[in-house]
Write a structure and sequence with these properties.
This protein is mainly α. It is built from ten helices and no strands. The longest helix has 24 residues. This is Helix-turn-helix transcriptional regulator.
Length: 202
Amino acid sequence: MRADAERNRSAALAAAEAVYAEHGVEVSLNEIARRAGIGNATLYRHFPSREALLSEVYAGQLERYCAIAETAAHADDPVTALRNCVTATCALQATNRGLADLLASLRPLSPHVEELRARHYRAIATLFRRAVRSGKVRVDASPADLAVLLIANAGLIHRTADHAPRSSPRLVALWLAGLVSRESLEVPPAPTDPQVRRALDT
């Protein structure tokens, strides 16, 4: 690749990562090209679709998302592993609005991303089965519960990250407290009334 083409590609990736982190994954490619200081045609030459760009921007973090679940699935203590996996996954969501959206979505991006999603589901299903068998987790707990949490957390992050940043870890802790029986879990304090008002006004 020519040096100027490589610079344009790198500029597009950097701009996309910044814009997605700030606003989520629905930002237009035209806006990303503008932020990168390149023409729309140049952007489309490197990334012919929004999905191609998203896959490139988030491939590394989606690998990490998958690795968190696979490590937890083979841990000696499945209950502690489940708690740590859910906490780490939701914390990963909270770092980036775009990533928050992707972790709560099955939007097709690329064959590589689809394989990561399949690997993640297999690991999470194993983790939940082992945790339920321990007798310390609700017998009806399933990967679907985690999917619902990730959807809720994504919306919460969009609304509260700037004004009530402790809201996400509190939601996760309360969710875990409801899932894991006979275990006292520390729950972060609730957001203050002014924080909630600011988040609702956003």
